[in-house]
Amino acid sequence: MRKVLLGLGLGLVLGSASWGSAVTLTVDCGAGTGFDLCKAGVNRWAKQTGNSAKFFESPNNSGDHLGVIQQQLAAKSSDIDVYLLDIVWPGLLVNQLVDLKTKVPAAEVNRHFKGIVDANTVDGKLVSLPWFTDAGLLYYRTDLLKKYGYSAPPKTWAELMTMAQKVQAGERGANPQFAGYVWQGRNYEGLTCDALEWVSSFGGGTIVDASGKVTINNPKAAAALDMAAGWINTISPKGVTTYGEEEARGIFQSGNALFMRNWPYAWANGQSDDSKVKGKIAVAPLPAGPGGKPAAALGGWNMGVNLYSKNQDAAISLIRYMTGPAEQKIRAIEGSYNPTIQTLYRDPAILKANPFFGSLYSVFTSAVARPSGPTKAKYNQVSQAFANSVTDVLTGKAKGQAAVAKLSTDLARIKGRSW
Known about the structure:
Helices cover 44% and strands 13% of the residues. The chain is α+β, with helices and mostly antiparallel strands. It folds into 2 domains: 2-127 and 299-365, D-Maltodextrin-Binding Protein, domain 2 (3-Layer(aba) Sandwich), CATH 3.40.190.10; 137-297 and 369-415, 3-Layer(aba) Sandwich (D-Maltodextrin-Binding Protein, domain 2). A 4-stranded mixed sheet has the order 8-9-7-10, with helices on both faces. A 3-stranded antiparallel sheet has the order 3-11-6. The protein is globular and about 65 Å long. Belongs to the bacterial solute-binding protein 1 family. This is ABC transporter substrate-binding protein. Residues 1-22 form the signal peptide.
């Protein structure tokens, strides 16, 4: 399969090595389950171009990952040529990454979803190219829903609570560790994503709106946070406030949970040969709050070139290949990573490997963006303040209304006269 895929568009991306003699690029390939897939893709490019590559395995926590990048760029280090960038980082790093606008053909850029390209564009500069997109999803055990008389996954949070309580009570006789619902409750960027979904699904806005106005202090946002706090020690383990994506996945994949909130990558892992839930899981949109509609946080990662790299031309060639159709197809099939290229959602091989890509297409194309656009370089402070406030509610230190009122004041102080 790979030999066929590598023929897709490589002539445009690779051509002859216009940067002269062979070089060795150092590439940030992230961490966790995606590291090996990234490494394999980079090595395919290196083999085609006669270059070589070394790899940087970043911290698994996205906040720590950002910290490493900021530290290196502040020192004008050329040690890493290509960085992986979360969808909310372009505004933070715009002045230290190569502007790709005149270096990548417009037709190549335009095959990606416009909203994701827009998120990678800051002050007219194309900071990075879309690599894969993400949106929060609800995973569930099909066998257990059927066992307890349910014909479909929950459409509302109230339904999820009812189902989770019933199934958890029934399963704990044989498995005392069984949980109704696992999610990302640790105080980090993942909690910002989960909590944004709760708030948005209640009709409580997006923390800061597109105009830059702080909107979090409202009753619907407060009610959403109180709801989530009510899950702890009922349908979710007390330890959920220490979970990231992998902790939640580990519990669900070992057969110890009914529902899980996670990103699309968890599908391929859940269907692997060593998964105890292989063939017993499905995916649906996250539930809606009272009078609201389902909301999925927009995630995804992108590739940018270090402004201080000594191998910029080769690095640009690499990211054009890695974000192109050949590599995105491989990653979708082998790792359930959502393409950012629209036409790949009609690819039969991709849809066979990931049946939900087609049925949940609208979830990915209408996902709710975190407020990194309006808050620009201050987004990291906004996200941390939000996650801190949510943590206070989840751990019982504050009720929802008090938390969002204090957060609104904190965000006004962070904003100052402008973002």
